[in-house]
Fold:
Amino acid sequence: MCGAVSICVNAFDGSREQLIAEVLPTCRDVLSGMLDEERGHTVQGNEIFEKLPRFYEDEFFRDMTSLNIRPPDCLTRVSEFIPEIIDYVMVIISNGFAYESNGSVYFDVGKFSDAEGHTYGKLVPEAVGDIKAIHEGEGELSLSGTGDKRSPADFALWKLSKPGEPRWASPWGEGRPGWHIECSAMAGAALGAQIDVHTGGVDLKFPHHDNEIAQAEAHGGTDDWVGSFVHSGHLHIDGCKMSKSLKNFVTINDALGRYTSRQLRLMFLLHAWKDTLDYSEQTMAAALHVEKVFNEFALTVKDIVRKLKGRFIKWDENEKKLNDKLQETKRLVHTSLCDSIDTREVIMLLKQLVSDSHIYIGAKSRSAVDCNLLHQIASWVAEILALFGAEDVSVSTGSPETLLPVLETLAGFRSRVRTEARRLDALRILEECDKLRDDELPQLGVRLEDSEGGETAVKLVDKDVLAREKAEALQAKVKRQMEKDAARLRQLELAEQRNAARRVPPAEMFLQEVDKYSAFDERGVPTRDAKDQPLSNKLSKKLLKLYEQQEKVYKEYLESLGGAGE
Structure:
């Protein structure tokens, strides 16, 4: 590998700057592994082990901000908690559940399991003693220093550092924390002896989380360190597990280059947190559809509220039915959130409530609906979406946007012009009205929605969204036209095939099928199969029927030619 990389570098005929900019990023993964293997042992001090994590920490929090995810209340870094981790390990040793061996400290799984009041492997009991699962979960930590352990199931609380690894002074010599101990120690320092909710990926159940539990219980003498574990499912990309080594991954930056943080959040909300989530064109299409449903509803309600100005009406059965839907949806949303935080069901309930509201609006003229009831529904939907960090379009009834009165006046003027143009059959004027609606106002972030016999709705929408909608509508129109043309072509081909079949004399229709038949009667109807065996009565009747049908259509064909032959 080293020789191949050297050959590639030496063969590159560009400048050093080009080498760094073009070649090294492509070879980064290969070079990293090579350099770590060759020169990793020469690293001195902990500076690089603090500087590099800070770089990725900053990148991580930039991504979280871009995704509209709130920062944590408390941030813990292992390098800043070494004294607390050492104290934590010493308590476990003093309680008799850990031992020192050749500069490392190991947790005694057997002793802990035998102790009264303790159980090892609470989350995945069937994996206890599964050395393969331990190796898969701990990697290098499970393989190095195996001769120092009393049992293969024991795991490191503190490891003697090898050359090139980070190191801190401890009672057992210079070393570093084990994988699991840092979580238990830092959580204890920040949250105390017990935790209500502990989260993590489903792949961390064993050995990581089971070992965290054992450490914490061995340290505090309790058996209820965590109230509830929440294990999220894996993220897949187009049906395959996301893996950097397989080059099957998408960065947050890449995803945000195509979608908004709200759209990505809706994608997650449409799936159960404990199940595998597949990031793909299909799942994102579903999220985009849901977003559009909520956006359009909010904009529609804003338009209605603005026009009716909070007017109250007497409720009839339509309003009572819609209000009952609202109250029932509120109850079901609460139940769904209490049922293992079922966000997918909540989104479906909100979507159905929006659909019911549109049915209510469609059943009446817009001037006759209860704008206050619709505003109450839209506000509550927005409140639930805001709870999920996915609320985007305001439905406030406060002061309208400065431009809206002007736009509504323009929309009213345009409607009157269109009405008069239709009366006069002035197509050119109608085209200009459509151009204003379809081309000019969308570039300013304004959407006009005409309704037959009703007022034109005015909606303020991001101009990029309107541009995308226009492009998608054009693509859909082109696709429909192509499908229409293809269907017409298929019809022409079928018609030509039927015409070609009509022109075949019945006496000749079977003569070309020598792979099926070997003898024919005077009319050209087969009498024996390809193996010179007589045909069955059933097949003979079927062929005769086909002959008679062809005789009929051929006669019609000849008549269409005026009785002449071909």
Observations:
- The longest strand covers residues 195-201.
- Residues 325 and 331 are 10 Å apart (CA to CA).
- The longest helix spans residues 463-502.
- The chain has 19 helices and 13 strands.
